[in-house]
Each structure stands twice: as C-alpha cells, then as structure tokens.
Amino acid sequence: MFSDTPNHRAPGSGELPVEWIKNDRMQWAVRQVNQDIDSFIYNYGEIQGYLPLREQLVQYLDLLGIHTSADNIVTTTGVSQAILTVIQLLLNVGDTVVVDSPGWYWTSSTLQQQGYQVISVERDYQGPNFEQMRQLLEEHRPKLYITNSVLHNPTSYNLHPARAHQVLNLMHEYDTYIFEDDLYAVFLANDKPLRYANIDQFERVFYATGFSKSMASGWRVGMLVSPDKFINQIIKLKTLSNMTSPEFGERVVHKLWTQGEYRRQLKKVQRKLYLAHQYMRKALSVVGLSYPEHTNSGIFVWVDTGVDSGQLALDAYKNGWLVAPGQLFNPKAQASTYLRLNVATTSDEFLEWLNIYLNKVNGCF
Fold this sequence. Notes:
Elements: H1 18-21, H2 26-35, H3 51-63, E1 73-76, H4 79-90, E2 96-101, H5 105-113, E3 117-124, E4 127-128, H6 130-140, E5 144-147, H7 161-173, E6 177-181, H8 196-200, E7 205-210, E8 222-225, H9 231-241, H10 247-258, H11 261-287, E9 300-304, H12 309-318, E10 324-325, E11 338-342, H13 348-361
Parallel strand pairs: 2-3, 2-5, 5-6, 6-7
Antiparallel strand pairs: 1-8, 3-4, 7-8, 9-11, 10-11
Helix pairs in contact: 2-10, 4-9, 6-7, 11-13
C-alpha cells in the first residue's frame, strides 16, 4: 500500500492509478467548502459526523434496498477505523473472529496484533463455504465474521443470494455478527448484487463503506452503519478514541457526491475497468494462464499461476516488480499458487516477464 514503486511496476497494487480517479472538480469542491470554513473549523463538529453526508448515504443505501437512518451512521477515518471500532465493541482479547480465505491481509494482521484468534473460511465464487462455516461456528463460537460481499478483495467475486441466506441463518443460530465491507462495490456498473445488509436490514450486520479507492485515499472518509441497539456504544467508542472525525474532508466528499461529479467520474472508471478485464482475459491466455470464470469487473483478478507465488513475488521484486502473492491473503500465510493482479496496473511488460519466469520454472527453457 505504501510502496513508492510506480504503478507500471506494481501489478500487485491495491489502488487504481491517480489518473483514473482524479476528479477535475476536486479543487472546486475544496474552494466551495473553504468559503464556509469559519462556520465549522473552530468547533469539534458533530460526533457522528457531518449530517448531510450521513443523509446522503441513507439515500444511496435506499436505492440498493437497504434501509437505515442517519441516526444509525457514524463517520470514520476510513473503513479500517470502522473495523477497529466494531471489534472493540464486540470482542475481548482472545475472542475468535472469522475472515475469508482469501481475504484482505490488513484485517487478519490487525486482529492478530491485538490478540484475537483469527480463523478463516474458504471463499469461492458464491461466497463462504457453508459447511465449513457451520463447522467453524460450532467449534469456535466466534462473535464476528468480517467480509466483502461485492467485488470481494482479492477475487472480485460477488455473494450469491442463496449462500447469503444460508450464512445469515447460521449467524442467527450461533449468535454471530457480520461486518460487511462494501468499499469496492461502487466499481460495479448497473448491477445491484445482494449484500447481507439487504436481507438482514441491520439486525446482525454492521455495514461500512468509504472513498479511499474511488475518490481520494488522502481524505480518509468512511462511514459505518450500526444496528440500532449498538449505535450509542459506537458513538461512545468514537468519542473516547478520537472524539470526532475531520469535517473538512467530509464536507468535500459530500460536495462532490451530491453535485453528481463523483457519479460521472465513477462511470468513466467502471468503463475502464470493464475494458481492462476484457484485455486481461486475452492477455492471460497468451501467458498460458486462465482468467477466472466468475470474475466481475473490479480492480482485481485472482490468478492461479501453478507455481509458488511467494517465491515468484521475491524473484519479481529483484527484477523491480511489486506483486501480491496468495499467501498474503491467508491469515496463516500458507503457501499459494495464486496472485492478485490489479487490472489497471498490470502491464504487458510484466506479463512478458511472468511468461518467461513461468517457462523457466516449469522447465520449458
């Protein structure tokens, strides 16, 4: 995430190139907010966050068939803080949390660092493995399951409705909550895939989203939707951790979102991602690799190289490439043959290097 490796040398990057998401109206929005700066900058602001931004999220979720109110939303400094808030709310040191495998490596590392037991459920193109999930819940009695439902990181798979219903039934049966990270869903054009929050309507689901991938990482603006019975505790936790979140960035994000510029920019990005996936499908076949059948047009594609991708990553680094090997996405760092490729930063030059590398490893040269 924080490497200074340029995009064209970083097929393992977790972000889109700046030129893809750069918004021509960003400076305009900053100037607009700056005109009213004296009215808010000298105060702490609202503990729950800038109200118009929370109300905008309510409208957005309503269009997705997910219903809540601004009173049940708090702003956060990104989805990462939302995760930290919920684990602080629900867990004690030593408690168990379920994550996806593969899944976002930051989550597992953070949980382990803070003394929680992390177990993983296998994730496929329909969602978490239902039978394995039942077994884990029965054996470990975890209090929380953290996941992406839409454009899952690193696979770009979506959650299948039947699997979603099965999993939610298990959550009720074993008194477990779901943290649903919806950060990547904005990149999915037209479709309205099902989320756990659609079915549950905030009884057992905490929902979070943000703008770090789609607008600007530097603003660190996220939003957390809580079940009604927990919202007062969530507000208390935010107050006792950092009191409020910076309102300037929240106002800029709101200005861009409500003026329609953000939506227009997203449509351009969605189109670019679609074309990048079409190209990646052809390019991988030239290298002798398969494009995963159920991949959606998100930032990533999860590719089986057939060789140890951990060693591949080390060898690639020696040649100036930054890649993301499969073991990063397993909480036990188990060896893997998979790579997460960013379709926006994976160049023909890297694929040529990869082709030569695989041929050497497989004894074709």
